[in-house]
Amino acid sequence: MATTEKLKPAARVSGQRQDVWTIINEAAAASPKQPIVNMGQGFFGYNPPEFILDAAREALGRVECNQYSPTRGRPRLKKAIADAYSPFWGREINPETEVTITTGANEGMLSAFMAFVEEGDEVIVFEPFFDQYISNIEIPGGKIVYVPMSPPKDGATVTSSAANWTIDFDALRRAISPRTKMIVLNTPHNPVGKIYSREELEIIGDLCVKNQILILSDEVYDRLHYVPFTRIATLSPEIEKLTLTVGSAGKNFYATGWRVGWLVGPPDLIKYVAAAHTRICYSSVSPLQEACAVAFEQADAHDFWSTSIRDMKSKMDRFNSVWAELDMPFSEPEGGYFVLVNMSKVKLPADYPFPPHVASRPRDFKLAWFLIQEVGVAAIPPTEFYTEKNALLAEDYIRFAVCKEDEVLELAKERLRGLKKYIE
Ligand SMILES: Cc1ncc(COP(=O)(O)O)c(C=O)c1O
C-alpha cells in the first residue's frame, strides 16, 4: 500500500541512496564465488581474549550487573578508564567528572553533537569520514563543512606511508566561519590508516583555540598504533579545555558487538554529553561495562596492549605482502586495521555487466563489485566516505579490513592473485 502523505517517513531516512554496506553485502550474497572472503566491514574474525570473556560471563551472574547502570556509566569502568588515560594526560583524570560511558563510540559522538550543536551550527569534517558522523551531525540540525584529505601524488605508482595523505591547512582555515562550533578529528584514521603528527595536531588545536571551536577527537583505534601516537587533548591546557576524546571498547577489546564506548574531557563539556546520553538511551549495557572495567584493569598484567599491536601489525604485514607480487601500491598504515590499496592498474573489461546502481558510482564501486564477482573477496569502496564533489580523489582505492584470522588473510591473498590477468 502506498504511504500516504501524512504517514510518510522523515526525509533523513527516506531519501537515502543505497548505502555501501547493503551494496557490498548483496553483491557478496549473489557472487558465484562462494563463500566470499569478507574483508569489508571492520568487525573482528576472532574473540576477545579469555580473561575478558571470563569477566563478561562472571558479570552476567551478578544481580546488580543485570540492572540499569548509572546514566554516566558504572563507577568501576569510569575509574578503570580514568586510570588508563591518566598517564597520557600526565595527571589524574577524575572518573566522576571527566569520563562518561556511552553505547559505543558512535552513540557517544551523537550525544556530543546533541549536547553542543544547534540548528545551523557548522561542524568541520575531514574527508574521507566515518559515515555515521554525517547523520549524527544532521540530527540536531548541524551543517557539515567538508575539508578533503588528499592521497599522495604518487599513490598510483609508489607504496608509501599513510602519513602522506594530507590536509590542505589553507582550506581548513577557509572552512572556519563564525558559526563553526566543532571540528571532528579521527586519529588513527579510518579508512586511511594515518596518525596525525604532533605538528598537524598543533595547527588544528591552535586554530580551534583561536576561534573557540570544540574538538571531537575520535580515537577509537588508539591502542593500535605502529608509530608514535599523540592525543590532541594532551598538547596544551587550552586545547584540552576544548577537547572531547572518544574511545571504544569494541575496537580496544575485539568486541564491536558489545556497544560500549566513552568520552573523556573537561567536566563542563562531559556533563552536557552525559545529559544528552541520558535522553538518548538512558544508560549503557551493564554486564559488558563491568567486563570492560576488568579488561582495562587486567590489560597490563596480560600484556594485552602490546600483544594487540604486535598481532595486528603482523596481520597487516601478512596481508599486504600480496601487493608486491601484484605490483600494486598501497598506503602503509600507521595505525588501525584498515589498508587502502591503489588499484589504478586493474583494467576493468569495457563491457563488464555492472548493475545500474554500481555503474552510476565512481570507479572504486566498480572495482569492489568486480573483486566480489571475479575473485570472491569483499572490500569497501572509500569514495562512500567522500562527498560527490571530492570523490574522484579516492576512486582508485579499495579498503581492506585485516582484523581477520590469518587463514582468512591467506585465502584472500590466494584469491587476489587471480587479479594478475587484469593488471596492465
Ligand atoms: C572512525 C570510527 N569511529 C567510530 C566507530 C564506531 O565505534 P563503536 O563501534 O564503538 O560505536 C568506528 C567503527 O567502525 C570507526 O571506524
Automatic annotation (TrEMBL):
Q: Which domain of life is it from?
A: Eukaryota
Q: Where are the transmembrane segments?
A: none
Q: Which InterPro entries match?
A: Aminotransferase_I/II_large, Kynurenine-oxoglutarate_AT, PyrdxlP-dep_Trfase, PyrdxlP-dep_Trfase_major, PyrdxlP-dep_Trfase_small
Q: Describe the location of the Aminotransferase class I/classII large domain by residue ranges.
A: 36-412
Question: What's an example of a GO molecular-function annotation for this chain?
Answer: pyridoxal phosphate binding
Q: Which GO terms describe its cellular component?
A: mitochondrion
Keyword set for this entry?
Aminotransferase, Pyridoxal phosphate, Transferase
Q: Which cofactor does it need?
A: pyridoxal 5'-phosphate
UniProt similarity note: Belongs to the class-I pyridoxal-phosphate-dependent aminotransferase family.
Question: By what name is this protein known?
Answer: Probable BNA3 - Arylformamidase
